[in-house]
Amino acid sequence: MTREAPVRLGTIRDDRGRSVALLDPMADWAAGRHDRIRKEVLDSIIRELSGGHLPSRRLIVGGAIAVAGMILLAAAAIGLDIYHEGAAAAADLRRSLFITVPAVVPMLIAAIVVPVLAARRKRLAAARDALLRHSTCPHCGYDLSGARSDGGAAVCPECGCAWRIPARHMLS
To answer: What is the rounded distance in angstroms from the CA atom of residue 55 to the CA atom of residue 39?
Structure first.
């Protein structure tokens, strides 16, 4: 009995059982990329995933910039404190980091990273289902309308992945 490799985050098994990477339509949409998925299909999928409205790219990118800016501001404040206070402030920082980092890092992993990864996995599964409802390959973004069937699964002519497209949910 052969043991299959585990499916990594962002990957799924197609209908042939192969582990393939999933396309992330939200990332393509946020970056303004329409080279893999047609713009009207991508906008429709994003509307579906976001609860019926098309979010603002500027708001999403602005939020990411704001978070990065806060991190840089905190680092600058620490650097400024060390600059003004001298070696004593640097020594205090080293001592406090020696004690707090081992406690803070596991809390950050537990409180931030784990829920973010779980939410990403759920979002990618919803994106896969939405892509299939729009007859679009979840691996490469190719239009599966009219793709040949292999045992009930549509085979993507671009990448060769096989996907079961529910006929009652097809939008195009």
So the answer is: 15
